[in-house]
Design a protein that fits this description.
Number of strands of chain B: 0
Oligomer: heterodimer
Structural class of chain B: mainly alpha
Helix content of chain A: over 70%
Structural class of chain A: mainly alpha
Distance between the termini of chain B: 26 Å
Radius of gyration of chain A: 16 Å
Order of helices and strands of chain A: HHHHH
Largest sheet of chain A: none
Helix content of chain B: over 70%
Distance between the termini of chain A: 24 Å
Chain lengths: 130, 116
């Protein structure tokens, strides 16, 4: 039980660190993406994404041993999630810039990947890749 | 019964957005996003955490209060840390409700995962 609690604390800590790194990366891309007003929203949103991936998709911290072939399925699901996310983000930015929505690509960049990432993670999970 | 669950989610999201609006925590043009995020929060709360259609509200009530208190603390702490980290000013802060909703969803997911 103590080990499980330690594993859970590590997953939560890892989530918060990964969210901080991701937020910092977007700040480095452009300071306008993550300013003082947006920091909390962007950081918490990435925390939702990373927690969903580590805790709910990979199942870390649940104390269950991986099923036979489970690791391979999750790797395929992760690769598919990353690939689909990149395509959707690039397509979204292109459409926003060239379409009639009048949206700035910069505004979208810090929040688009995590939303698409979540969509494709749920999709991969429904296809049995979890 | 299914529709009752959806009604709970919709009512919760509408009430939360209204309260945020009354507190002045929503910004111009973000109310739609506020409503969606609060709907997501109430969907996970009602379906996954409380376990609708047989909700264990009495068992989950302390956890629900804990989630909202932790989220509120995180919202204020990160807001206070934003200026030392990023510079600038947070005197005008139009994303208070969005931040609170995001932190609430994060703590809710942790509580669902850890079965608290």
């Amino acid at each position: 039980m103590a080990n499980r609690n330690l594993e859970r604390l590590l997953v939560i800590a890892l989530t918060l660190v990964l969210s901080a790194v991701t937020t910092w990366v977007f700040r480095r891309i452009s300071p306008g993406l993550v300013n003082e007003a947006l920091l909390s929203v962007v950081y918490a949103s990435w925390a939702i994404f990373w927690f969903f991936y580590l805790g709910l998709y990979l199942g870390l911290g649940l104390g269950a041993a991986p099923a036979e072939g489970g690791v391979q399925r999750k790797l395929i699901g992760t690769a598919a999630m990353v690939a689909f996310t990149v395509v959707c983000v690039l397509a979204g930015i292109t459409l926003a810039e060239t379409g009639e929505m009048g949206l700035s690509a910069e505004v979208l960049l810090s929040v688009l990947p995590l939303h698409w990432g979540l969509v494709w993670l749920v999709f991969a999970q429904n296809l049995g890749m979890a | 019964v299914k529709y009752l669950g959806l009604l709970l989610v919709a009512a919760g999201a509408a009430a939360a957005t209204l309260v945020m609006n009354l507190l002045g925590w929503t910004g111009e043009g973000t109310r739609g996003l506020d409503l969606v995020l609060w709907a997501l929060f109430f969907l996970i709360l009602v379906q996954l955490y409380w376990g609708f259609p047989k909700p264990a509200v009495a068992r989950r009530l302390p956890g629900t209060v804990g989630i909202l208190v932790l989220a509120l603390v995180a919202t204020f702490v990160v807001k206070a840390l934003s200026v030392p980290i990023m510079g600038g000013s947070v005197e005008v802060y139009p994303f208070m409700s969005l931040a609170f909703a995001c932190w609430s969803i994060w703590f809710l997911l942790v509580f669902v995962w850890a079965d608290v």
